[in-house]
Input
Amino acid sequence: MRVYVVWQPAYDRDTLAAAKQSAYDLFDDPRVRHIWDGENALAKWYTQQGPLESTAIFIWDAYYLYASKAQWGDEPSHLVDSGHPVLSGMDQLVSILTSLSADR
Output
């Protein structure tokens, strides 16, 4: 499993330093790769092209789960699930991850 957590400035208090601290506090796991997107480029792309609907300028606090064979060409392939906000979608995300790990 690979986990990429993309940190972005959704609010004024969302800085690179704050993201680093949150990364340390919330995701102390060597499988997690942290990425700072200071321009919100990925979030803007997902707002325009992604599977989740949002009326915001850019989507944030969302998860996208891809199959291990996924590749990124013009867009990512093999989307398994997505949801937002993350906390209220956590039960669904955990359920899907559990079923995928049981299939191995």
The CA atoms of residues 61 and 98 lie 21 Å apart. Helices lie at 16-26, 41-49, 90-102.
